[in-house]
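RETRY 2/3 - previous attempt timed out on the joint model. Re-submitting the same 227-residue input unchanged.
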Amino acid sequence: MGGNTLRGYELCLILHSDITDEDIDALTNSIGETIAKQNGTVLKVEKWGKKNFKFTIKKQSKGNYCFVYFSAPSDVLRDIDRLIRFNERILRYNVVRLPKGFTVEQAEPVVEEAAETVAEPETEEAPKAEQAEEGTPSAEATE
Amino acid sequence: MTGKRHPKRRKTFYQKRKICRFCSDSTLDISYKDFNTLKHFVTERGKIIPRRISGNCAKHQRQLTRAIKRARVVSIMPFSVSAS
Ligand SMILES: [Zn+2]
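RETRY 2/3 succeeded.
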């Protein structure tokens, strides 16, 4: 594990809805610096803005979504974790591996208009966000 | 036993979609961030619809399942929706 192989990752940040745009930029910048320190590069930052949750996270019903695409050695994930973990304004974060041969063009924002379903179904509190589920085929075979 | 037999009850079948939507439309991507696509493949309760009913191919169903589960982690998709 570890090593210097650059891998593509996508970090999803769910921030408190009160957070300002400048705070988001400051945060993504510091994440970018952390990534750069390990010879990684930020490919793209995508800000969604406020969005209603489908279930409450840390007693909040909405949050500010932000996605950071980057390519970096896997050690960076530990550094990012350290940076983010104790930040109370980050309600949740999640890292996923980008598919092989990923290009920035593919990172175009998903058209996502009518997604603002304000109806808030009561759902169970989700398990704590797990880190980095990578692209291994899951044993989720249907039949 | 009264000789009267019930007429054979027809089992109600779901309408099977025989084609995989993602195979027939190559522009359609599977992404955990794309609520509007994913929502078609879960029930009202939020459960993932099996391939036998949706008609998806194995490969795309696998990708779809992964996307839905990822979307749940970041609250883009619900884990469950209680009956109202
Ligand atoms: Zn298919």
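The CA atoms of residues 16 and 53 of chain B lie 6 Å apart. Closing ticket.
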